[in-house]
Amino acid sequence: MDIKRLFALVAFLFATFTSTLAQGTEEQRKYGIPDPAIFSAFITASGTAGGFSTFHHSEYTYMDIYLDTPDELLFQHGLSLRFRKRFLNDTLVTYGLQLKSEMASDTAVRMEVEEPELDFYQVKTPDGWQPLTEVLDVYFDALAQGPVDYQSPEIAKASALLQEWIRFKAGGVVTPFQRLLHLKLAGLDLKGVQSLKPVICGVEKRQRSHIYSDPANATAGWKPVPANVLPESLRPKFFTEHPDYNWLLESSLDSAVFYPLFASKTPFVAIFEYETENKYCVPATGTQLLSQLEVELRNRFGLQPQSSSKYRRSIEGFRE
Amino acid sequence: MNALLACCLFFQSVYCNPVESGIPFQQEHSEPGNPYLSGNKINLEAVRTTCNFLTDNDITEVDGNLIPRRKTAFIRHIKHINETLEQAWVDNRDADAEIMGLLYELRFFEASLKQKAAQQAEGPLNIWQKIRLRRDSNKSSRVFRYKQPTKVSAGLNDPTDSPFWHAADTVPLQDRFDKLAKLKKIKAKKNMVVLFDKLGTDGSAPKIDAFDLDLDNDWTLKWGDEVHTDIAGSRIFAALGYDVDHPYYYGENKLTLVFNEASEIPDASVLVERVLGTYDVDLSPFISEKGIVTTDMADSLEQLRPFIGKPYVRFKKCGLEARPDRVKRIGSFLPEALHNDERTELRGALLAHQFIGNWDTREANTLLTLVHRGNYEYYQSAVFSDLGTSFGVVQHTFPPDFKTGLVNAFPWEAVLVKNKRVRLTSPVNAILDCYSDATYDDLQWMAKKIGAIDSIALRDMVHKAHWPKPLEELYFHKLASRRASILTAFQIPDLHPIAFDRNLNYEENGVKIIENGMLLQDYEPEANPESFLDEHGRFRNYGH
Fold first, then answer.
1. The dihedral of CA B334, B340, B342, B344: what is its sign?
2. Distance from the B134 Cα atom to the nearest Cα atom in chain A, whole angstroms
3. pLDDT recorded at residue B193
4. CB neighbour list of residue B404: distance below 8 Å, 6 or more residues apart
5. Could you give the angle at which helices B72-90 and B44-55 cross, rounded to 10 degrees?
6. Which residues on adjacent β-strands are paired with residue B378?
7. Are A54 and A296 in contact (CB under 8 A)?
8. Which of A102, A172, B249, B429 is deepest in the core (most CB within 10 A)?
């Protein structure tokens, strides 16, 4: 990458980038994988596809508790809401509450808002205040052992505490709840939001990779992309160490298993999928790059686009 | 006043705050009608309404005005406050000092954000607002008169430290500005390279926004008659205990502005055109060099290396004001609301404005900010902003215009005493409640702070403004004289007398530059295009 290009579109690109972040939307694409073993080997080996180089940099473990109303209004409205515990490279643990929409079929854009920090929230119990994260950990600790028995006393107690926390906070400052009320969807008024409760939970292993262009790996016909313009605080260390590489996209190879927290004939749903996400400062260029990569991956690995969220696929699976 | 003092002392003894706020207990909290209280318990619904307003970016309007987007750090801070209050509500706690402090903080933020939304909706000043500014200017000399007490009083005690003011500590007064800058992680290098972002459209002086090379922090670049005055004024206010903006002076070729070729303003020539069109100011005389960044330039200034081949411009002189990522601006600090007009530290600020001869005292030039201290700890701070319309201001009615930094228009006395009556000499364009309500005692309190500035501190702060040498000398003597006039008028013994000469003379190469305390000729007009004598300012429209 010509480092002089670093500044080529600073003002315009930076402004566009920040405005995109501010909208609470992200452009993603998802793919089903016909041969997981071969594709997994490609990812862990940091392979190249066309003019795209990849760098496998992290393995994350996510644990999720999905919420919905008793009559599955979030599912019906194409939304998903989950508590997520993230284990980042076995060292860092964070908790969040995320509200997402299903991917729009025409733009591949998903609405996403997050309450990014749950550590300071407390749940009132008969014994006093307890951190919300400890209540969530009752589920997550059980998940670490395998399938979760939603009828166990521990889970039932945690579920009651969680529902009480949701009931109390529904009209408050928790961003996903604020957004749900703002959307004014049928049935999802304050009372509807207060009725949210855990419906499924699961574990997900995620192999994260940077996708970038490396001038040394440029293939014939590869059109160089101007340098991605980002605040230093958002630039991954890998690109600070390799200033010639141009960060374009981010990807994750996910293998997940979900368990129902209600009676179902299906004991679990397993999902194996690949996600790519735009990280380029000019959204339109990023969209082109996503399409370009899609062609490469389809030709080489037979990847097939899909749009349903893990939540939708899981619920549909548990209904079977 | 006694009640306020008692209140402050009470607060000092009981207040503690788990979310690192610095808001002192307010007398009003014990009064009926506090919207966040039902009896002495928290009114959860009212607290939530405010917290949702402050944190929910889906709420985009208030009173028909667009609300500025709330920043992530600000939202986070409010959520922490909200959680503490919600837990207190669940526990049915009485509203103690901690709760009162947090409720006050919420109320302050809410009112400030609403003020900002209303201010932005107003747009440029209309004719009536301009007339009011002129009227307040004319009224100043009549309003700011105080009877000298026959008996010298001990004076008021210092208020408790608050977002509005901080007592002196071990840091030398002249270094308090740098201490504030360090807290905000501002790094003004000796040679700066900044990246063009956009041309400003508001305010009266030409300015542009620029990115720091780290792209996390921003800077505002200014030219003209406030380049020296803003820097001196901000440092003096910081020395007196106030928080301020952080402007820095950059002399010839010390700052490089690099352009983005693809932007609307791709080089210096277009910038000059656009500034002329927007502000009616010709930037050309301020430009020292322009062109394309070369390898040779990068060899002498490493920061330029990534920009070889890009257009750049350098200036004979300019001001660079920090817009650090760690500081989130909310709205004004509400000098006329929430009982703030009763604060000695805000009333006393009138005398600080008089000391530097600041004219533009509008509420819009006050800021409530949230500062990230690090490790996700935040503190509120009230900032006196835009202190550059000072050090000698001349106004013209037709055409409406003014010019600052005219040293001969900067009186030798800040305060005059006649028949036991004290009169302030510098007009201000907005007589805010805290200034109209200021008493002799309030001003005397500030006079003591001004008296604490000694010769070394004053010399250092004037020097940092980088006026040309003769101007620096003249301003130093004038400020020393104004300081003396203040101490005399408020009957304060001068513990650090600063010698000054009202008949100062200054010659250079046999040419008289200053005679009997008057600047005789424009000093090096090529290097100082703004002129220190020419009263013809730019056509100031308070926002185009």
1. negative
2. 39
3. 95
4. B225, B226, B229, B359, B388, B389, B390, B391, B392, B393, B537
5. 170
6. B372
7. no
8. B429
Average pLDDT for chain B? 89
Query: Interior CA angle at B334 toward B331 and B338, to 5°?
Result: 130
Token pair belonging to B346: 């805000």
Task: Please report, for residues A130, B79, B489, the alpha-carbon distance to residue B74 in angstroms, rounded to integers and kept in the order given.
Answer: 26, 9, 44
Using the Cβ of B214 and the Cβ atoms of chain A, whether some distance falls under 8 Å is answered with yes
Quick one: tokens of A122?
Answer: 């407390």
The mean pLDDT of B373-384, rounded to a whole number, is: 91
Let me know: does A201 contact A254? Beta carbons within 8 Å.
no
User: pTM of the entire structure?
Assistant: 0.85
Continuous segment of H or E residues that includes residue B244: strand B243-244
Gap between the Cα atoms of A187 and A197, Å rounded: 15
CB A193 within 8 A of CB A97: no
* Two tokens, residue A188: 């999802």
Beta-strand pair A48-49/A122-125: unpaired
Cβ proximity of B544 and B279 under 8 Å: yes
Question: Tokens standing for B243?
Answer: 């928080």
pLDDT tens-digit series, residues A230-257: 766 678 889 888 888 999 999 999 999 9
Given an 8 Å threshold on Cβ–Cβ distance, is B56 in contact with A22? no
Whether B7 shows a pLDDT value over 60: the answer reads no
- Considering only CA atoms, which of B387, B440, B379 is closest in space to residue B415? B440
Cα–Cα distance between B213 and B191 in angstroms, integer? 12
Query: H/E element holding A175?
Result: helix A175-183
Mutation choice for A interface testing from B44, B52, B217 by most A CBs within 10 A = B52
Q: Is A293 exposed, middle or buried (0-12, 13-18, 19+ CB in 10 A)?
A: buried
Mind listing the pLDDT tens digit for each residue in A37-64? 999 999 999 999 888 999 999 888 999 9
> Confidence band (pLDDT; 50, 70, 90) for A25?
low
Is B80 within 8 Å of chain A by CB?
Answer: yes
Contact yes or no for B301/B258 (Cβ under 8 A): no
Residue among B100, B109, B82, B77 at smallest CA distance from B28: B100
**Cβ–Cβ gap A172/B196 under 8 Å:** no
- Complex ipTM tops 0.85: no
